[in-house]
Structure formats: structure tokens, C-alpha cells
Amino acid sequence: MPSPQRRSDPFGPIETAVSLLLSLFVLAMVAFGALGVIGYLHDGSTGVSVATIGDPEACALVSNESVPSATDVPQRGIRRGVGSVIAERVEICIAEPTAFQKAASALAPVGDMVLGVGALFLLRRAIRTGRRSGPFTMDFARRVRQLGWFLLVMAAVWPFVAAAGRGVVLEAVVPRRTWTYALWEPGISVTLIVVALGVLTTARLLQRAVALQQEADDTV
């Protein structure tokens, strides 16, 4: 009698890809951290930085309206009368920052790193829960909902935290600018908000599907 055909695992390829990406992230951070420690112990300083942590300066990327005089780009090397060069964003740096200013400037890059690693971690956890208990279970729906809320917070709330950090650098470098100026330009990603809402909607649909399945099982 021929052996029954094995069921394909829909979560398998996705979990492999997500686990690989997460492992690369972690290995890269560990490698850069080890190189930084070795450099510091050997030379007393390190040229390695992770999410700007380790850089001697405190820098922030701000809009051209924050520093109008610094965004005047010489119109050389282009076809005159055809196009023009405009600096939409400019990087400003504090040469000798305080610990607070350095921490504030690191909020934006650290947030980007947390978003990437956190999303991969929560996605892998949801996938493993789906493989273990099935896609139409409350455990899997709960994991998907956690991923959605994480993405929504990082998309709608964290940009204002990062903007406040950029504002600290802006206040120190540019006269007549306060840290609140950057809050008007948080740089919110509409795409990420839509994705987060889509994940939350999927979680609600999964919860509804589980409830309907339970009702069907109770009536049998």
C-alpha cells in the first residue's frame, strides 16, 4: 500500500527565512559589540558603533527648514535651466555632547533596530505557535495581535520619541530652536501603520474564526 502523502507545512519556509534574518541581526550586533570592546581595551577607543552607540559625536538628521542657511546647495555639476539640487535633509552634530545628548541622538537609530529585531522575533514566535497549535487557535491569534500592536506602537508612537531626541541635538546646535521643534516632523510611516492595522485586523478575524469553530463543534 503506498504511503500517504506528507502534508506540506505552510509555516516552514517562512519560519526558516525569519529565523535566518533574526540570527544575522543578532550575530551582527554581537560581532560589532565584540570588536568595539576589543578596540577599547587595546587602544582606549573604538571606531565601531551600533545604532550610533560608540560614535564620539551626537548627530541627528533634520529637515532643511530646521537649518535653512545650511541647505543652500551650490548649483554646480548640473545642467542649468534643466534641473536644480535641493537638500531636503541635513545632518547636524554636537562635537562634544553630554551623556544625555548622546542618548537622545541615539533614539532614532536604536528605534529602527528595535523595530527590525522585535518584529522578526514576534513574527517567529507567532509562526512557531501556529505550527504547534494550528492557525485557527486563540494562541496563534494572540501572538498575531501582539505583533500588530508592536508594529502600531513603533509606527505611531516611537517616531515622536525619536523626534524629541533629534530636537535635543537641534536645540544645542541651532540658535532659536527648541527640542519641541522636531516634534512637528516626526517622520511617521503611513505604510507601516497600514501594515500594523492589517495585522491587527487579521488577528481579529482569526479570533472570530476560532469562536465560530468552537460554536460549530458545540452544536455537533
TrEMBL record:
It comes from the Bacteria. Pfam families: DUF2975. The chain crosses the membrane at residues 20-41, 106-127, 147-168, 188-206. Signal peptide: none annotated. The keyword Calcium does not apply. Keywords: Membrane, Transmembrane, Transmembrane helix. The keyword Transmembrane helix applies. This is DUF2975 domain-containing protein.
